[in-house]
Amino acid sequence: MGDRTTEADAxxxxxxxxxxxxxxxxxxxxxxxxxxxxxxxxxxxxxxxxSTAELCRRVTEGIEQADGxxxxxxALEHLLSRLRYVSGSYNDAHTFKAIKAALGDAHxxxxxxAIPPALFATVIKSLGASNLADRARVIVEKPFGRDLSSAxxxxxxxxxxxxxxxxxxxxxxLGKEAIMNILYFRFANSFLEPIWNRNYVSSVQITLAEDFGxxxxxxxxxxxxxxxxxxxxxxxxIVALLAMEPPAYQGYGAVHSEKAKVFHAMRPxxxxxxxxxxxxxxxxxxxxxxxxxxxxxxxxxxxxDSWRWEGVPWYLRSGKCLAATVGEVLVTLKPPPQRLxxxxxxxxxxxxxxxxxxxxxxxxxxxxxxxxxxxxxxxDQRELYLLDERPGEEAPYERLLGDAMAGNGAxxxxxxxxxxxxxxxxxxxxxxxxxxxxxxGSWGPKEADAxxxxxxxxxxxxxxxxxx
Length: 468
Ligand code: BG6
Description:
Helix content is about 35%, strand content about 20%. By secondary structure, it is an alpha/beta fold. β1, α1 and β2 form a beta-alpha-beta unit. α5 (about 120-130) runs parallel beside α6 (about 150-160). The model has no long low-confidence stretch (mean pLDDT about 95). 6-O-phosphono-beta-D-glucopyranose binds near residues 210 and 229.
């Protein structure tokens, strides 16, 4: 937690009438209010001419949709009593004058940009020009830029107005318990480190699957696609936590530096290392072009050119309208060097592995072979299963918003890391391979199987039995 001198004393939400505010930010503020952690004025800004009463109604609806009808009225009233509304264009100096007036005597506000990425620079520049940026901080949603050059430009604009430690780039995956556990599990245990490298790991797979489509966000998706929407950020963050070197000291600056090094060591992607797919029916979604080539599925083979990971393939896969909603990491280990038992180097199935279940529940499993009872020296692979079903006390947005308000940048992404991650995907953004069609409810286009074939087959989470 930040101390009182760094704690923001107001929250300004640009884009307060939008989808992100309704689905994520209002429920997070409500839960902060329930825990007694919301004690600052909240100023909503958008272009629609709304009354504060109408904004309160929208906020209440957003919370009801997220948390059901059993709302704690004291917490809700507490939140609503803090709301103010400013309407106006983000290009207009009057809007920012009105924001200044609404902020009253607050002088360390946090500005949350819950607006389309194309407007980030406009708002940041206007905050600077209206003298609203001093001692303030800005919270920016992903995707941070559309490619390397736009991310650089956005960083340049943001850094011309705010210092780096006042810029909070959100990737909500970093606020998830299961993702934080990767960092903890790797460096709070000593048994892993000796095997966590190219000598013992044969490949790593990460799957983030969703069994639903773009859910009315067709227009956004058309400008993003799966690679920009989740792979360059959420999945790359998971790779960085799995692949990074041990941080040199206790403190998040060290974690940020080690993660950035992983992105720098990733080999820039080539079209041959990527399969794009599009689910049948995507082109009929509202806001989607009839001849759209945007990918709703993406699979990659990544290489990390570091001492630790030389030669180890990293397979990443994500998509909409797949067979399940689930996220998992599978770290497959090499077989024993000698075939002492007939089945110790399985021809089919998997060698030993470590599995991190990321969603919908959180778990870690370690698979090892054990002998079956009897005369024969044959056995089965069994999972040692560590399950932690308990959800965290705070949902990711609540956690991250609270951290940003407190000035704690640990779970946010740093300028150099964001740019290095864009540099990896940049070559395929300008020359994307074709998007293959796939059936909703499948695991994506069959062409993705060929990508992984040299190292086995895709692990379809949820289908793995206790003995594999
Ligand atoms: C968002 C993407 O960042 O992450 C969505 O824009 C995606 O398309 C979502 O569905 C997945 O997040 P979660 O927390 O539901 O796994």
